Amino acid sequence: MQKVSEKVIARARELMHDGTVSKVVGWKAGEFFYDCEPNVFETEESLKDLVYNRFCGANLSKYMIKNSIASGGEGAGKVLVLLKPCDTYSFNQLLTEHRIDRENVYILGVGCEGMCDIDRIRERGFKGITGVLEADSGNELVITTLYGEGKVNIDDVLLNKCDSCKGKAHKIYDELISDNEDEGPRGDRFEGVRELEAMSPEQRFAFWQAELSKCIRCNACRNACPACSCRKCVFDNNASGIASKANTDSFEEKMFHIIRAFHVAGRCTDCGECTRVCPQGIPLHLFNRKYIKDINDFYGEYAAGEEAGQRGPLISFTEQDIEPGHAVVKGGN
Amino acid sequence: MAVKIIPLNELEKLFAAVALTKKLYLPVEKAGQYDYAPWEPGTGYDPEVLHTVKSAKGVFFPQSEDLVRYKRDGFSLSIAQVAPEDEDFVVFGVHACDVAGFEVLDRVFLSDPVDTYYKARREHGTVVSVMCAKPEETCFCGTFGIDAEQPGGDVQSWISGDTLYMEALTQKGEALLDQLDGIIMDGNDAENRKAVNDAAEEHKEIMRKLPLADLTTDGFGKEADLLTLFGRPEWKELSSSCLGCGTCTYVCPTCQCYDIREYDTGHGISRFRVWDSCMYSDFTMMAHGSPRPDQLQRFRQRFMHKLKYYPDNYDGAFSCVGCGRCLQKCPISMNIVKVMKKLGGADND
Fold this sequence. Notes:
The complex is a heterodimer of chains A (333) and B (349).
Chain A (H helix, E strand, L loop, with lengths): L1 H16 L3 E8 L8 E5 L8 E2 L11 H8 L7 E6 L1 H12 L8 E6 L7 H6 L5 E6 L5 E6 L2 E6 L6 H4 L11 E3 L13 H8 L2 H12 L7 H5 L25 H15 L8 H5 L7 H15 L26 H4 L4
Parallel strand pairs in A: 1-4, 4-5, 5-9
Antiparallel strand pairs in A: 1-2, 1-3, 6-7, 7-8
Chain B lengths: L3 E4 L3 H11 L1 E8 L2 E6 L25 E10 L2 E6 L7 E6 L1 H14 L6 H9 E6 L24 E6 L2 E6 L2 H9 L5 E2 L3 H20 L16 H5 L3 H5 L8 H5 L6 E7 L3 E8 L19 H19 L11 H5 L6 H8 L6
Parallel strand pairs in B: 2-6, 6-7, 7-8
Antiparallel strand pairs in B: 1-9, 1-10, 2-3, 4-5, 4-12, 8-9, 11-12
């Protein structure tokens, strides 16, 4: 990771210096080693804080809606964005939806070996975390804390989305810095969905009731989601009659996330940002993966964002399409 | 100080005794996350848990609460105000930062015009604080002059070894400890006082080692020049990746803004109030539109409120207690510490 990181930072500086780009959308060093934040760098000087490390999990694709459109114009220069392999699916999907001005973007594809989740490190009992070192072997982290030191296996503390990594291949880029061979997807991403499908309706209801009743309607999932790019969300629109800042009743509590998942069905690339950002740890990706799995079952394998300009199965009718009554035949499952 | 003690493994008895006559709130685990919720037999208490996801403020200022109910019956309309809280309750396990958060809310809701609903809950609620077990690297309550070893509230308590040591600070606190006579024991001797002092000293030692121990409020507060702070060019970069979600405001112990809305229940209307967030696009929406059309302005509002407007209005007191929840929960890892270090005095570099 260290080698790629140095190359990425050096290349971003070069591209800014030679005028290829006028802005860089990347990750900025935080207060601690793990709180790197997405940032728009506008000067060469500011790039001293650019980092690329194990804690750059945030998907920067959605920032390109604002930053690619706002750029442009004579001599304004392009905007450089750093995209990990999984992030490129979101970028493609936004291109498909005409939400990004491709002309104004320079994509630097950056290799990724999996991003770590500070919350998962905390869940393993570490408190007062002050430092981390990646062991030379590349599969362990040495964690230093105010209360002592310990080791964790990197695979145990990856972000949820990295547990079932889509693969190391970038689906779109202008330039690539990566040492990784693409070994295809990691793990079975539908395992969690199968567990839910195997439950009785009562068990499944209880599972979601416990999870969704934690929701505080902070909208972090929606605002981080690259598929949620409506200029004005219906839930923010006071004229819609359903605008709300809290779950007014238990029905709304359950329906908010289900409706949102339906709205992004067929467009969700399974980037995992919803689950990553949820302050309450609700496994929101399970909704999206259920719909992705169903789409695959009904219409054949489909990956939103694999290519720009794809027509998803839900918006392209063919005579072979499944009959709407199929779900009824299956008893609602 | 009159110390009362109870072994930690008998806390269940204490909770049950409180719950006999009062509702009891404490940090409760639900699907892997802790939040304040009513105690039930078997709920337990984990002293190692530093933070609930949401602060304890919801006990006095719930995320949403009904104010008025309208009901139509044929051609007649009935309007009923929802009565303010009229039953006593206890909140157990609040740490010093969240107790200080109540004081921030008190200045707003208990000064003229007094908030009836908040006041009723404050009067009926008894706060039992506990000195936090293991502060995190994200903690900085000391920056705001909060004494983590004297957590405050109506009863304050400490854990040392296998024992909870309690001390009443107010009449309400004394009444609660009196009610628990027989469950808790008198422990007002030199040995116990020493145990408390030792635990506090040990805690103080950790507080000194916290990475944010040196963070200061220099450059903010009453003395700072409002327009200079407001006009700082750094707000642009600080806010450049803010998602405009409400996570920071909803987990915050001091954010106090709310909206009043109405909900069509199908057979009537409920008027309720609900936490609002200055990060949202329709916050303080007016007839002419939003006074803060960009995220930069909304972002600046939140931190100016905590570090400048609130101190101006309340004799220099800050509207942040350094609990560090926003540091842990912001989806993009932006937070008040980064703002203070960027815009504050030279000491913070």
